[in-house]
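The freezer alarm interrupted the setup, so I double-checked each line after restarting. Inputs confirmed:
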Amino acid sequence: MLPLYLLTAAKNQPMLVELKSGETLNGHLINCDSWMNLTLRDVIQSSAGGDQFLLIPECYVRGNHIKYLRLPDEIMDQVKEANIQNMEQRNFNRHNQGRNNRGNFRGNKRYNNQGGRNQNQSRGQGNQGGQGGNGGYNRGGFNNATQ
Amino acid sequence: MSQAQIQQPHHQQQPNKNVDALSQGVEDLYLESYAFTTAAGIVGSVDRKVFVLLRDGRNLFGILRTFDQYANLVLQDTIERIYLPNNRYAEADRGVFLIRGENVVMLGELDIDKEDTAIEEMVQMPFNEADKEWEALNAERIKLETQRAKKLLKVSGLTSDFVKSDLY
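Predicted 3D structure, all chains:
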């Protein structure tokens, strides 16, 4: 479990962010990315000296300005639990997927939300759109049709 | 290169009977005896108590839970400790830390049997007071260093590498 994974799992949790400048931001994490850029809500910003305070409804922090984050003590346990649940869900899904798509041995089925105009579902209806030129062969997740 | 060659020590020193205390176990310091030398070197310290020095001079003591290639660290049950002149120190509980790797100066594993021997001879004081005093010391140091830098530039045309945020 990498530090940034812990951070993504800490969404909606209260946290304290100290910037390199010494300013601190107290707020709830809305979102973060792999650069440690953050968006926080209901933030109390304290100046480096700790003598001025600002209440900010929402703010964005560029990751490279962060010195450290302080997270709630319970976070480690919560993340562990969430992780276990995720694994179970994934195992369950994989199990079911195997049952619903017999014959698709590669396991790389197209999902409905992947876009592209002629989706060939592996359920066996063949071409649905009528325009699909490469009937039934578009199995590997590529959209070969040039329109 | 064969495995045997890698493990062979660099130096062909004759074993000296009267080795002084300082050079005992010096072989362990040769880099080739370590499996990893970069960020992965701390893999052995995971789930152990470590000490982390930050660039702003803060000392953190906690259990290292995870890290990554940038040396971003997650510490649990962290204690922040301030050391002051005249054998004084102060501590505060800080909980879970996620430290951005850039700000780490050094990290070391603690020997939990010996970690308290140093502070046993010191006097603990309230953290708030210690923090104030420490801030004052830092402010003074920044003032001195900027003066020095100015003088250095004027007198000899040299620049100083002191940065305000580097207080370790």
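Quick read of the result. Residues 38-124 of chain B form a domain with the SH3 type barrels. fold (CATH 2.30.30.100).
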